[in-house]
Amino acid sequence: MRIDVLGVGFDNMTMTEAVDAAAALLDRPGCHYVVTPNPEIVEVCLENGEAKAAVNGADLVLPDGVGIIKGAAMLGTPLKERTPGIEFAAHLMGRMARTGKSLYLLGAKPGVAEQAAENLKKQYPGLMVAGTHDGYFQEDADVVEAIRKSGADVVFVCLGAPKQELWIQRNGPNTGAHLLCGLGGSLDIFAGVAERAPKFWSDHGLEWFYRLCREPRRIGRMMKLPLFLIHVKQERRRK
């Protein structure tokens, strides 16, 4: 049973359980997908029914962001732990490198996915990267066909929310991949063109503040966090 946070249902799993579940999906027939919503994405889902359906339609919905953990606790339905998308991806790639599964990287600016692929192959010896494509395309069909021809088992779709979730829902089965993961700006970090917050900030749930200090232009997006907490408080009073 999923934990409901403002209409988005989160799977209540540890990181280890989430990676095990993803690996199991990867071995099943058909197409499956994973999403990793943070408070900003939950707020988008409150306003966009199509995005909400795409998020809730995922086989795994993992809480990326301390705000989701706090929100669930405030509503009296605590989640086991935060499972950041980029860390989930790292654990999954380690598993894939050992089991011979191949990966396709989709998203970011031209050249970023290729650099990410080179870095990841060094970081995870044995990881097979079947192909890459930037996120600057107008038509889905050519990209879908490229993924299908690559024979990739897994696709990291890094187009930003809710575009990536909608893209996965619309195109996933036609790619031929068994597992697609919506991972936001992860390719920039894998490529080394952006940095994660240092461990201290992450451990204390302040990664969002670190990013805001580094990129003040994100203030409009970051305002979704206090709005999210206001909505959680309103929902708690309603219940």
Structural write-up:
The chain is an alpha/beta fold and 239 residues long. The chain has one domain (3-238). Helix content is 53%, strand content 14%. The protein is built from 13 helices and 8 strands. The strands form 2 sheets. The chain has a 6-stranded parallel sheet with strand order 4-3-8-7-5-6, with helices on both faces. Strands 1-2 form a two-stranded antiparallel ribbon. Helix 6 links the parallel strand 5 and strand 6 (128-133). Helix 3 (49-56) crosses helix 8 (163-175). The mean pLDDT is 92.
Summarize this, please?
With 239 residues, the protein is α/β, with parallel strands linked by helices. Helices cover 53% and strands 14% of the residues.
How much helicity do the residues have?
40-55%
Q: What quaternary form is this?
A: single chain
Radius of gyration: 17 Å
The N- and C-terminal alpha carbons lie at a distance of: 19 Å
Our count of domains comes out at: 1
Number of helices: 13
| Beta-strand percent range | 5-15%
Low-pLDDT sequence parts? none
Q: Determine the mean pLDDT.
A: 92
Give the ordered list of helices and strands: EEHEHHEHHEHEHEHEHHHHH
What characterizes the major β-sheet? 6 strands, parallel
Report strand order across the widest sheet.
4-3-8-7-5-6
Give the beta-strand count.
Answer: 8
What's the shape? Answer: globular
- Secondary-structure-based class equals alpha/beta
